[in-house]
Amino acid sequence: MRQGAASTDEEVYQGTSIRWKHFDASYKLAAKKVSMGWSYEDFAQCVPDWAESNPEAAHDVFSQVSDYMYTTIIQQGETVLLHYNAARGIDELHQTVLDAKTRAATGEEPGMDTWRGTLDPNSAVRVRVTPVLQEEKQRLETVLAELEAESNELTANLKQNEDRRAENEGVANKLLDALEQAAATFNAIPEEPVQMWTIEAQEGVP
């Protein structure tokens, strides 16, 4: 049975170890026993009248149902095994066991990662995981510090832009006030002197 992580770009991994082959054969044997573990007599008891009057057809249906059950179990089981990449995992387990037996046979001293019967699982996990978590913590703290620095710089720029905007608004308001005052002063001048001044100005033009 071909197993592995489902992918459209790479071929599905196929188990090769003897451990996987035994597992695959046992899995298929279990599926066969489940789907064909009932007899025709058990089936006939579900539809006794029809089975008695049509024994040949009943035998055919019994075979079809058994085959369908077997096929369905195999297909659904392979979907689960494929999803969890069981073939690769079992092959890696097999290789790990072989390596351990080889080390034991040659008298090689156990390494730091070798499992010991006296080793507490919780302690072993903490020893392996704690440095990784500390390293990740330091990395995240560095990223956070960089983000805070960028945030502070952005806040300062926004404050500076806000101050400039307020200053520009102040200048604009002063100019508008001056224009309004000039317009009010001009509108307050009597119309006749203005007309006379306009005429004199035009006559004085060469």
Oligomer: single chain
Order of helices and strands: HHHHHHH
Termini separation comes to 109 Å
Q: Which stretches of 5+ consecutive residues score pLDDT under 50?
A: 1-10
Total of DSSP H or I helical runs spanning 4+ residues: 7
Let me know the average pLDDT. 83
Silhouette: elongated
The portion of residues forming beta strands comes to under 5%
Class from helix and strand fractions:
mainly alpha
Gyration radius, rounded: 45 Å
**Number of E-state strands:** 0
Describe this structure in words.
The chain is mainly alpha-helical and 206 residues long. Helix content is 79%, strand content 0%. The chain is built from seven helices and no strands. The protein has helices at residues 18-36, 40-46, 48-53, 55-83, 86-106, 121-188, 191-203. Helix 1 (18-36) packs antiparallel against helix 4. The longest helix is centred in the C-terminal third of the chain and has 68 residues, at 121-188. It is elongated, with a radius of gyration of 45 Å. The termini are far apart. Residues 1-10 have low confidence and may be disordered.
